[in-house]
Amino acid sequence: MIRMNCFPCFTSQKSRNAPCTNNNNNQTNEHDEPEFRPPVATTKRVEERETEQLPVKTFNFRELATATKNFRQECLLGEGGFGRVYKGTLQSTGQLVAVKQLDKHGLHGNKEFQAEVLSLAKLEHPNLVKLIGYCGDGDQRLLVFEYVSGGSLQDHLYEQKPGEKPMDWITRMKIAFGAAQGLDYLHDKVNPPVIYRDLKASNILLDAEFYPKLCDFGMHNLEPGTGDSLFLSSRVMDTYGYSAPEYTRGEDLTVKSDVYSFGVVLLELITGRRAIDTTKPNDEQNLVAWAQPIFRDPKRYPDMADPLMKKNFSERGLNQAVAITSMCLQEEPTARPLISDVTVALSFLSMSTEDGIPTTIPMSSFRDKSMSIALSRHGSCSVTPFSLPRKEEDDNSSSSSESEDEEEEEKEKEKEKESIRSMKKQEKEETTAHSDDESDSNSEKGQEKEHSQLEKPRDSSSSVSDSESDQRRSIHETNATAQSLKINYSYSSEEEDNERPSSKSSSKSNEESTFSWHDSDKDHADSSRNTSMRINSLAHDDTSRNTSMRINILAHNDSSRNTSMRMNSLAHDDDDEEEEEEKHETRLEHIHSSKSEDQSVYSDEESGGSSLHQIEAEEEEHISSDND
Ligand SMILES: Nc1ncnc2c1ncn2[C@@H]1O[C@H](COP(=O)(O)OP(=O)(O)OP(=O)(O)O)[C@@H](O)[C@H]1O
């Protein structure tokens, strides 16, 4: 039923005839002339004021009725769980807006509504649809948002217009990156964190340049009929396919539930398949259920990709994206990565690598170990178990009390344990699944290693819009930060503990290392055996001596050769899991070689000790850090 259609006096003959573009894919630019301008005399604003200290306006109902041509059908953009959404033009400024008319079931009181609106208005980020204002006249509950002209991600993935080109890989990764940034803002930059609860492809809107903006965030308390099972069930149906397993188990939702939903969206971007598609055969209708067995079989990753992309993507990038996705879709919430870590990883994947420059994700970029563990597991980095300190955000924690630090560390350890448990569980499943095809499994390991190396971004020089350039600046900053990060790495968790900012400084805390990974990629034929890892151990001691150690990992199994350094990852012993988890650590121990002093063996015991990589280590001593 169409509501609020009783304002004929606000609609001129001209406006009746004027088309109200309700095609949300019409690429209308916000700066274009608005297509509808009712006569000034009939649309005089009764009231518009800035709500105290907040960039949100109150609109009266007439104003919004005018903007949407009395909520005419032709202005209807669509109807969702909250109510109908109309495209409109604010008469006072000519700005295009989306007016969301909240369903009146379970109507919230005016004060309650206002309070919700004010807290919504505080959420501002380039990747979130901006709330411009609201109307709470009488029993009206309307929200006015910026209009996003390009339609939703769902439209572009599944409801393409004739002649519309399918989205390419980089565009998809950029959309994922932008959406992750929006979510990261809600989870990490807002206090208290906002759980989105409703992340899905139809809630990711795209502007004319495919810049993503999340909508319907923070609206939980405005849901119609909250507490009314009839209305709740219709929304759950809509979100079905995106909801985390804990939701179906009746547990509380957390930020990690959003990470799960994000994983589903990422999977949709990669595969071009809907989260739920009832037109597909039974075993393919639920996207995650369909994808789970494929996650364990990297050989099948390329078949997973959206056929519309016609394999126009780097296989390595695909493998990394799938690795991130499968991590987000872990059954156990605590085993899923932080969205901030997903964001960092996607910042690298959303960079074009057409020039074939080897790319790097510094492990130090990740705040939580689960992401580096996941990427390591998918062969993106073999040197997982370095104990990494948290990123620069934690610098702020120096002001926190010691008990908070301890609590934080406990949580970290718990998360790490959970990740390892989850990995082991999955590894066991894989072992069972592949026990009848050992040779395949071996070749997979090789393939994973070959294709899943981490990528180094390069700057894009194309001209961009303001918002996009902001985003690129942000990408650049992220990368610059990541690349310049010095890892205070330690060889055991005890040592790591000693290196926490809150700890008393020790000589170890002054040992800083930069870590970069040069990938062996198919694209670089000759380098396929020469994955080179450069570790610059910068000893900031009184003599300012920098020790730079170069380690080349040669991807073959000849362990008998030339060893001077051994890296043991002690995280794998089924007999004594708890103890091993405590020992989750990497050791560098120098062992002697019969042939050469400058080569090493990297022993990855996590993979059953079967993969030994030759490491060539050359120690260079620099007199000053200037030489680095
Ligand atoms: N700010 C906006 N700019 C442009 N179009 C919008 C905007 N907000 C919503 N829309 C469009 O309006 C329609 C309804 O959106 P709405 O968010 O209410 O529902 P939904 O996302 O389809 O479902 P749900 O409410 O269950 O999430 C969708 O087609 C959506 O793309």
**How confident overall, as mean pLDDT?**
64
Uncertain regions: pLDDT < 50 for 5+ in a row? 1-51, 226-234, 381-401, 434-628
Helix content: 25-40%
Largest sheet: 7 strands, mixed
Subcellular location: Cell membrane
Region (Disordered): 17-37, 380-628
Biased composition (Polar residues): 477-487
Biased composition (Basic and acidic residues): 412-459, 518-527, 583-598
Would you give an account of this structure?
This protein is an alpha+beta fold and 628 residues long. Helix content is 33%, strand content 15%. The protein has 18 helices and 16 strands. It has helices at residues 13-17, 61-67, 110-121, 153-158, 169-189, 229-239, 245-248, 255-271, 287-295, 301-304, 315-328, 339-349, 369-377, 402-434, 438-451, 466-484, 493-499, 577-582, and strands at 49-50, 57-58, 76-80, 83-89, 96-102, 131-135, 142-146, 204-206, 212-214, 511-518, 530-539, 546-554, 565-569, 586-590, 599-604, 611-622. The longest helix is centred in the middle third of the chain and has 33 residues, at 402-434. It is globular and about 60 Å long. It binds adenosine-5'-triphosphate (ATP). Adenosine-5'-triphosphate is lined by residues 24, 77-82, 85, 98, 129, 145, 147-148, 152, 198, 202-203, 205, 215-216, 235, 238. It is a lipid-anchor. It comes from Camelina sativa.
